């Protein structure tokens, strides 16, 4: 089974549990916290993936960490099933996909705007408003700065990148010129 199929299958199953809990976003956030803990701790990752540890040891660790993070018992059982089936290496992807599904259920669209420097709040609000009007969804806007852009901005909305940066325009002009020179020879 492909990695994409694994993450989709388990995320959909966990979404069912999350919907039963009545707090899909909270459920997804807690699962992401669990996945982050596994990513951040080599020891935890070793316990959950190494054949040197028994399944009972893994279940004990999953249960203890899950309770500490406030996961519901059925979420902990879902994590135990993921471990039992040898899919714990997909946990980050599963958690990310569950987060995406939770956003879809809530009508939230995540967008990222990268500018050369920090811009005034009104700039970000205008972009956010424009995206909301275009998509009809509530937008959660992430902001970042990248001084290599020179000026302008890059927006990433739902997997689509819109490059309105000066560097992007210069790169486009360069490609056009090189293409024209290549066609002229």
Please, could you describe this protein's structure?
Helix content is 65%, strand content 15%. The protein has 185 residues and is of the alpha+beta class. The protein folds into two domains: 3-104, N-terminal domain of the delta subunit of the F1F0-ATP synthase (Peroxidase, domain 1); 108-184, Glutaredoxin, CATH 3.40.30. A four-stranded mixed β-sheet has the order 2-1-3-4. A hairpin with a 2-residue loop joins strand 3 and strand 4 (160-165). Helix 1 crosses helix 2 (24-40), helix 1 packs antiparallel against helix 5 (73-84) and helix 4 runs antiparallel to helix 5 (73-84). The longest helix is centred in the N-terminal third of the chain and has 19 residues, at 3-21.
Q: Count every helix, treating DSSP H or I runs of 4 or more residues as helices.
A: 8
- Structural class per helix/strand content? alpha+beta
Question: Strand count, sense and closure of the main sheet?
Answer: 4 strands, mixed
Number of domain units: 2
- Helix/strand order: HHHHHHEHEEEH
Q: Globular, elongated, flat, extended or rod-shaped: what is the shape?
A: elongated
How far apart are the first and last residues' alpha carbons, in Å? 49 Å
Report the sheet-strand fraction.
Answer: 15-25%
CATH topology of the largest domain: Peroxidase, domain 1
Task: Name the helicity range.
Answer: 55-70%
Give Rg in angstroms.
22 Å
Oligomer: single chain
> Average pLDDT, to the nearest integer?
89
Query: Got a strand count?
Result: 4
CATH class call of the largest domain: Mainly Alpha
The unreliable regions are none
Named at the architecture level, the CATH assignment of the largest domain is Orthogonal Bundle
The neighbouring-strand order within the major sheet is 2-1-3-4
* Corresponding CATH superfamily of the largest domain: N-terminal domain of the delta subunit of the F1F0-ATP synthase
């Amino acid at each position: 089974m492909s990695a994409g199929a694994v993450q989709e299958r388990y995320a959909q199953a966990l979404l069912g549990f999350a919907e039963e809990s009545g707090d899909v976003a909270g459920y997804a956030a807690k699962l992401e916290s669990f996945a982050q803990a596994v990513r951040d701790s080599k020891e935890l990752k070793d316990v959950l993936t190494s054949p040197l540890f028994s399944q009972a040891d893994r279940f004990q660790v999953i249960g203890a960490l899950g309770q500490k993070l406030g996961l519901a018992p059925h979420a902990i059982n879902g994590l135990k099933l993921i471990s039992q089936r040898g899919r714990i290496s997909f946990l980050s992807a599963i958690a990310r996909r569950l987060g995406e599904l939770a956003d879809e259920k809530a009508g939230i669209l995540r967008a990222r705007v990268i500018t050369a420097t920090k811009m005034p709040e009104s700039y970000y609000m205008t972009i956010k408003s424009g995206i909301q009007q275009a998509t009809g969804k509530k937008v959660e806007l992430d902001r970042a700065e990248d001084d290599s852009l020179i000026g302008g901005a890059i927006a990433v909305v739902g997997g689509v990148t819109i490059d309105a940066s000066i560097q992007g325009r210069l790169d486009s002009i360069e490609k056009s010129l090189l293409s024209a020179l290549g066609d002229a020879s």
